[in-house]
Design goal:
Blueprint lengths: L1 H8 L3 E8 L6 H4 E7 L5 E4 L2 H27 L1
Antiparallel strand pairs: 1-2, 2-3
Length: about 80
């Protein structure tokens, strides 16, 4: 169970939405805020839901690549 909790923590993000300009642009493009990856502390500001999703995907991809490299090092 501890392994599952650790894996879930690696995918956790804190998202703060400062403002949604839905009246003019809609939620998809009008969300403005900040996102932080809990495990790494890496953070970024975003100006749309697309930018938020791109940040999350990039961080998770980097994390997956780092985990794979750690596993390969341990096997050597």
């Amino acid at each position: 169970m501890a392994e599952t909790s650790r894996a879930q923590a690696g995918r956790a993000f804190l998202v703060q939405i400062d403002r949604v300009e839905a009246a003019t642009t809609g939620f998809e493009e009008g969300a403005i805020g900040r996102v932080e990856h809990i495990r790494s502390g890496e953070a970024s500001r975003f100006g749309s839901m697309r930018e938020l999703a791109e940040f999350m995907e990039r961080v998770l991809d980097e994390l997956a690549g780092g985990d794979a490299a750690s596993t390969e090092d341990a096997d050597a």
